[in-house]
Amino acid sequence: MNNMTGGEPSAFEFLHLTKTQRMYAFGACLLIGFALSLLGAILFTLGQVALFATFYVIGVVVSLIGSEPSLALARNTTRANAG
After folding, report:
1. DSSP track, 23-66
2. pTM > 0.90: yes or no
3. In angstroms, rounded to a whole number, what is the distance separating the alpha carbons of residues 41 and 49?
4. How far is CA 11 from each of CA 15, 46, 68, 75, rounded to the nearest angstrom?
5. Which residue from 64, 68, 62 is spatially nearest to 8, judged by alpha carbons?
6. What's the Cα-to-Cα distance from 21 to each of 51, 58, 64, rounded to whole Å?
7. With the C-alpha atoms ordered 13, 14, 19, 24, is the resulting torsion angle positive or negative?
8. Confidence of residue 72 (pLDDT cuts 50, 70, 90)
9. In whole angstroms, how far apart are CA 55 and each of 25, 64, 82?
């Protein structure tokens, strides 16, 4: 199955998602990651450093998982050499 980069297959290719479903998943991961990171920042201001670290790291990881298709496009050698 071809992926959008034309290079190596995506780690999530087994899910067989349409482009629209991928965009919804990206948006959901972005919003959930932002919300968790924001919650972590609020906890930090309240002095809950351990909870801050936990929520912030989980938020960043969720955001990065959601941006995997964007990272795949950035690694595309054809796109990198275009500029």
Report:
1. HHHHHHHHHHHHHHHHHHHHHHHTT-HHHHHHHHHHHHHHHHHH
2. no
3. 9
4. 9, 38, 9, 14
5. 68
6. 32, 23, 17
7. negative
8. low
9. 20, 14, 38
